[in-house]
Give the backbone structure.
Amino acid sequence: MHKIMPIQSAFSIKANLQAISYLFLKSLNIQNINSQLKAQQEQAPKFIKNAIVIIDFSFYAKRFTANEISQLIDLLKNYQIIPIGFANASIEQTKTMQSCTNLNLINNHKSSIKSENVTKPITKQVNGPIRSGQEVQNLQGDLIILGSVNPGSKVMAAGNVHIYGKLAGKVMAGAYGDKSAKIFVQQNFAELVSIAGIYQNAEHIKPTKNCSIIQLNAVNSIETISI
Amino acid sequence: MTEVIVVTSGKGGVGKTTSSASIATGLALAGHKTVVIDFDIGLRNLDLIFGCENRAVYDIISVINGDANLSQALIKDKRCQNLFILPASQTSDKDALTDDGVAQIINDLKNDFDYIVCDSPAGIEHGAISAMYHADHAIIVTNPEISSVRDSDRILGLLASKTLRAKENSSISEHLLVTRYDNKRARFGEMLSVDDIAEILAIPLLGVIPESPAILKASNEGIPVIHRKVPAGLAYTMAINKFLGVDDLQEKSSSWNALNKLFVKIANKVGA
């Protein structure tokens, strides 16, 4: 018997590249997770919003209750993070996940990633000058600006910031909390400098025409060293 | 190939309309068929500077709305046969300026003119963005004063992102025109020097127009200052020559000190 294909199909499929991130869980302390998410949201709101994640248990081998997981998922949803599945879970963890969530297990071979850095840092280089009102950021590594950063502009990086020119705007290094991040400038007339959230504004910045390194000292406050 | 020049600044009152009038006149006097468009809808004054307000029947909004065609709206300058003016509407509001309407007008004008000069309104809103959208060149008019420099920097940022050329990944040719410059005050440190401004804005210098009582006179008379033999008028001529790449005095006096000495000489000669 011949099967006749209907003229109008019931659906069509189009391949699309969508970024999916792994959320490597390291603790189920809801308060801690909330604080960390809040901090990340303040520093880089676009990164968090509508992020699609797979919850990965590679770094969290403990058992958990259905209640704990429900709390986690509700928290994620508050930040508009969309969990679509889970990975690298033990048999017990998988059972719990399947009983209280409708998330599926995705890809159960152990990931070879053992280190903290999930992605390799990428350096971004931008030709300046960065004009008033412009914002440049690199949340995946260092940022190099060839030119000045003019008053009224903002540059931000997860790593170090190197400015081959006069800094007269706002700069944020170590945006994800890297306290070892540094800011290198040819002249410092900054409106605001911040390293891992610790900041100093123009009132307390001594303007200088010397090449300087701005970094955190032993007691976690901003210091500027002329070179 | 027609070239579109936007005269913009961000800050208001720095000399955009004054400069647009003299620049358009200068280009026309150099033999190029030029049209200058007033993009300041509701606050038009390009027609006043040219002294042609009595002949402004139709304007850019009439053309966009289809109430008149371009040739009816364009006003021929009395003093310069290559020069035409397209006035703004005084009664409409800024929203009447549609993107498609402007694009159509610019494309139609490209058929007949060598240069289209767009006199931008102040600010960074729709009017200013419309004026700069189709530009190949931008003349950034800046006073030697910190808020003017800050606003010019902002406008440069917008030129690099909100224009047709920016969207096509090419770039607009940017030129700095310093206006209302007072050499004495700059030397005493009261006023930013041309070097300071050029360093902050990091764009090539087109010209320096000195502060001059002749400019107020020119507006009142309705004759662009470039027609007058005063330092400001001469400065506009030199700026045009530099823009067109014409060799002149500019080449011989390579430093601005020499140029300022020239201003003083001319000022003494004509008593302006």
Observations:
- The beta strands of chain B are 3-8, 34-38, 75-76, 83-86, 115-119, 137-142, 173-181, 205-210.
- The CA atoms of residues 30 and 240 of chain B lie 9 Å apart.
- Chain B is about 45% helix and 15% strand.
- Chain B has a mean pLDDT of 91.
